[in-house]
Amino acid sequence: MAADDEHAGLVPSRGVLLIKDFCRHTGLDQAVVAGLMRSERIRGGLWRDEAQTRLFGLFDDVLPTTAELEALGLAVSDGYDPDSLRSS
Fold it and tell me: Which domain of life is it from (predicted)?
């Protein structure tokens, strides 16, 4: 089977970093991150419900950089590296 045939019919998808993992890597509180997602100051949130009360994770192709988080006045863990958290 050719490589092209192997992937035929697959739906392209985006990777997601779970909110608990994002918070562990950044040192940020889940409630703070959820609030920033609701106010659209951070983009890429994936919610469990339409009312946006239960944040599931963040699309890993749009994870905010340390500089972006610091520009929002947030203190970010030294080891946070969004590139290392991306799925591909």
Answer: Bacteria
